[in-house]
Specification:
The structure is a homodimer. Helix content of chain A is 42%, strand content 25%. By secondary structure, chain A is α/β, with parallel strands linked by helices. Chain A has a six-stranded mixed beta sheet with strand order 2-1-3-8-7-6, with helices on both faces. A five-stranded mixed beta sheet of chain A has the order 14-13-15-16-17, sandwiched between helices. A four-stranded antiparallel beta sheet of chain A has the order 10-11-9-12. In chain A, strand 13, helix 12 and strand 14 form a beta-alpha-beta unit. In chain A, helix 2 (21-31) runs parallel beside helix 7 (153-169) and helix 3 (46-59) crosses helix 4. The first copy, chain A, is globular and about 75 Å long. At the A-B interface, helix 1, helix 2, strand 2, helix 6 and helix 12 of A face helix 2, strand 2, helix 8, strand 10 and helix 12 of B. Strand 14 (299-305) of chain A pairs antiparallel with strand 14 of chain B, so a sheet runs across the interface.
Chain lengths: 423, 423
């Protein structure tokens, strides 16, 4: 099954918006055995949408359109679809009722634009949108499928996950695809490649190993196309076991989870509570930890002491140390851990202080030099990171590497347990 | 002059890499009056590259290819180009000499792959690459232009900036393009559309108004194609002025900036300092504020009191109020503002407490109900948000709306100034 992703939006052609939807859709389709062989982006004009739709429908089994749906630019995409399939536009009472309910809850009136949004090509089955007003559309005809989705990423993802992907999985003729994913943190792609070179050389032809790098992390995805599920899974388990042998604790989990969820789980089962003290990361570590639902069962909070005076006042960092060593130093992050442990009465803590950039670097402490510390009152582990020049990637990478450092520290203190929330 | 951007790479189709190159190229071309009307992404196969090149060359004045150049996957793109133009591949002594110099400097030998990389289609003029080994290519024929660039973003950008864009600017027949962008926060897309309906109806044909929505924000972009710069800019200024009249303070800035930068600027020029106290946002407000380089000139820090006990201990929220009203309530966010103002000695503060979801909702306080407060000791403004069910969008939207609320509060207190950092 070959797919085309058709993205609609002048703002994408103009480069004002980066198209992240297509990458996400590509990953999802690939995971269920559908190959994206082309992506096209066109502007918000009837002619360009129609001609791309024509081209896509004639050459692909599946066309996924994103963008061009919503209260203000609804019309063109739906008009293009209706005219391509030569069907009428019909009013969807269900959609209108849903929109009215949403606005009723918000205590605001729906506008005429919202009513107009409820006209749909007659041959479309509507895919419910739990995150917004414009539903997705599913059209199946001549053994081909067209899916049209709004361009707002969280709406698109919600419709894909809840409605489109489950339907796609049931289509006949999909060659089953099996995945086994190992999640690593703290090792670079080339370091992993060199440790796994033997395993990769001996990989059978029907198994593939892909490296999916992100900041501070690499996901390793084993895939098998076709064949018997039980046989393939057993084969992949054998390879996974070899990979575990080569990468050890760098693997933090397997399957579909995140480092922050995994760290949370580790804390929760041991009854340990966590607090953080941040400087250059400006809340990014807290933000990552609290992105996990239920983090309140083990996470107490953070203090972002962006200013040195607050590091002294609230975290007990001695002004002499700040003066002699500077805020970006081992003793400062150590004391930040001690300080937040006692202020927030936590069992373990993470701290970070560094030069996120782009300004503020010195020859001694260039942009990208960041100290992190993890541990408890008895044992604090520190590490100096040497990152790049980009502020946002420095902040994000620090959050990942600091959480990973605490995870490794916890693995080295297997006996440590706590009694949960102190209050 | 109409352009096609052709991106080559399996990793992009698979969604392992997000294509940021095309957005950047789109912005650059648009700024010099070249309109990108289509983008295509294909995989690393000779057939797909050749057929897209064929299609692009027949329909566009300019085709820019990125990816598919470099020591490991060099061959296919150049073979496709040479075969399309029916020219030989010739060895570039200059390129080889440059590569040898680079490796000499690195103290490593160049590989055979690097020598192979020096064969180029005979009709290509080479565009020097100061950041890597693979030069770009420029082919002009039949009044059309093909530019081929490596896919590594900083190499692509360097060749574009230093060699390709200067040449493109000199091409005859470029129609200038003008933009005027207004940035709004706090109003929905449909609310804006209804307020601007009169203006939109009377928009002259050569002007376009685009809505670019994001969480809690909508960018409004006026564009004019062709004509005299001064005339077009005056026309757009007239429309912009009508939009200002309809949207008022919802417009936080015009041009290329962000809400967090704009809020920071407002604080900085008034000498005011900011602190935040967060609960459900878990550091997201701090994270947004500190994403702006130089935030340390006005931002003191945040306390994320994820746990109620910490709200009492460090922010002075009375336990009775937590017991009677719950943590998600007006008096609690008000006291969080008061508490952080005094703890961090800030001039103004933002606080937020709510049910981010997906769990934790009750009939009284459903998922998505979030209280925010902004202000100083004399005047605190609170607002209840009713957001959706998605944890991460609830957190992100709260951060945007809370920053916007403080911006509006500051506009309503024009006389308020401070004396900068308290330490």
């Amino acid at each position: 099954m070959q797919a085309l992703i058709l993205t609609i939006g002048d703002e994408i052609l103009l480069g004002q918006t980066i198209d992240t939807n297509s990458a996400w859709i590509g990953q999802q389709l690939n995971a269920i055995g559908i190959q994206v062989t082309r992506r096209i982006t066109v502007g918000d004009t009837l002619e360009s949408i129609s001609s791309s739709l024509q081209e896509g429908w004639s050459s692909y089994d599946l066309v996924i359109m994103t963008g061009g749906l919503g209260p203000t630019k609804d019309d063109i995409t739906k008009t293009a679809i209706a005219s391509f399939f030569q069907v009428e536009m019909v009013f969807s009472e269900d959609t209108y009722a849903r929109i009215l309910r949403i606005f009723d809850r918000l205590g605001r009136p729906a506008t005429e634009a919202h009513r107009a949004q409820c006209f749909m090509p007659a041959n479309a089955q509507l895919l419910p949108n739990s995150m917004g007003t414009a539903p997705g559309m599913w059209i199946k005809q001549d053994h081909k499928i067209l899916i049209s989705l709004p361009g707002v990423p969280y709406e698109m993802k919600s419709i894909m996950t809840e409605a489109a992907l489950p339907r796609l999985r049931q289509q006949p003729g999909l060659i089953p695809i099996f995945h086994h994913t190992l999640l690593t943190a703290g090792l670079g792609e080339s370091e992993i490649a060199s440790r796994l070179s033997n395993i990769e050389e001996n990989l059978p032809d029907h198994l593939k190993l892909a490296y999916l790098p992100a900041l501070g992390q690499v996901r390793l995805r084993l895939s098998a196309y076709g064949g018997d599920a039980r046989v393939r899974e057993a084969e992949m388990e054998t390879i996974a076991d070899q990979i575990r042998g080569s990468l050890g604790q760098a693997i933090y989990a397997e399957g579909d989870t995140s480092l922050e969820a995994c760290l949370g789980e580790l804390l929760l089962v041991r009854g340990l509570t966590l607090a953080t003290a941040e400087s250059c990361t400006g809340g990014a570590i807290a933000q990552a930890i609290t992105s996990v639902a239920g983090a309140s069962r083990y996470y107490l909070g953070t203090m972002v002491a962006y200013h040195n005076e607050l590091k002294t006042k609230h975290l007990g960092v001695p002004p002499e140390i700040l003066a002699s060593e500077g805020a970006v130093s081992r003793p400062v992050v150590e004391q930040m851990v001690r300080g937040i442990l006692s202020t927030y009465q936590a069992d373990v803590a993470i701290s970070a202080s560094g030069v996120a950039g782009p300004g503020g670097g010195t020859p001694d402490k260039p942009v990208g030099m960041i100290w992190i510390a993890v541990g408890n009152q008895q044992d604090i582990r520190t590490r100096q990171l040497k990152l790049g020049k980009n502020r946002s990637t420095n902040i994000e990478a620090t959050a990942i590497l600091a959480m990973n450092e605490l995870r490794l520290w916890l693995l080295d203190h297997p006996e440590l347990t706590g009694s949960g929330m102190p209050f």
